[in-house]
Recover the amino acids of this structure.
């Protein structure tokens, strides 16, 4: 069965600093991986996704993530944090791998950005 | 707004009452997923439906919960005889095909008194 672990339920960075949010997954099939962002009292918005091909994936708002099969990781990064990046971030893997069905989510990481 | 719509956004029920949550997918999307988010937890899959069919309900509690996605109209998640543990945010997502990106609605926040 697929699973996702997000290290660190809370991460705090200064404005302009590097953002690194960690995600490790477990999957018995080639995974499809996703990062979503959730602002308070809102739904989830897709930041980026990895399906196949290039392992470095660029998303919206300057975020990117690298799929590392050997490390079973899909960490999310942004070179320079902005105040508007403060939100909760969820890593997810498709349950059946590939393109099928529902998503399995990590518990989320709340990102705080200090001025 | 062509996105996923959910209503109501907030719902308060007393223990034992019924809760009915509605989800209108993106126009043209025939795949609907329901997820539940408990406080301090990530989203947990509940049920996956296509028009008039339940495809996967492995995440749905066996009792009191049911879901439908009729040929016409929104998808409905129904919780009978609610208990305090049902208090959570319920999110609906839709996609045009299985495996395509899922677009999430703003959620319904259910509070059971």
């Amino acid at each position: 069965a697929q699973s996702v672990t997000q290290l660190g339920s809370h991460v705090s960075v200064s404005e302009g600093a590097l953002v690194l949010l960690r995600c490790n997954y477990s999957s018995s099939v080639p995974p499809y991986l996703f990062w979503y962002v959730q602002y308070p009292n809102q739904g989830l918005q897709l930041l980026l996704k990895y399906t196949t091909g290039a392992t470095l994936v660029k998303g919206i708002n300057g975020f990117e993530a690298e799929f590392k099969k050997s490390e079973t990781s899909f960490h999310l990064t942004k070179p320079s944090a902005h105040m508007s990046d403060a939100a909760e971030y969820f890593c997810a893997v498709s349950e059946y791998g590939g393109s099928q069905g529902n998503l399995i989510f990590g518990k989320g990481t709340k990102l705080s950005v200090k001025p | 707004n062509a996105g996923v719509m959910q209503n109501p956004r907030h719902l308060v029920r007393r223990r034992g009452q019924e809760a009915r949550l509605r989800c209108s997918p993106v126009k043209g999307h025939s795949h609907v997923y329901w997820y539940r988010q408990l406080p301090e937890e990530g989203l947990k899959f509940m049920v996956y439906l296509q028009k008039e069919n339940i495809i996967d309900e492995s995440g749905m509690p066996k009792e009191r919960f049911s879901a439908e996605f009729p040929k016409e109209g929104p998808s409905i998640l129904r919780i009978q005889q609610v208990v305090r543990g049902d208090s959570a945010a319920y999110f609906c997502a839709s996609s045009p095909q299985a495996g395509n990106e899922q677009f999430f609605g703003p959620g319904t926040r259910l509070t059971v008194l």
Q: What stands out?
A: The two ends of chain B are 33 Å apart (CA to CA). DSSP finds no helices and eleven strands in chain B. The longest strand of chain B covers residues 43-50. Chain B has a mean pLDDT of 92.
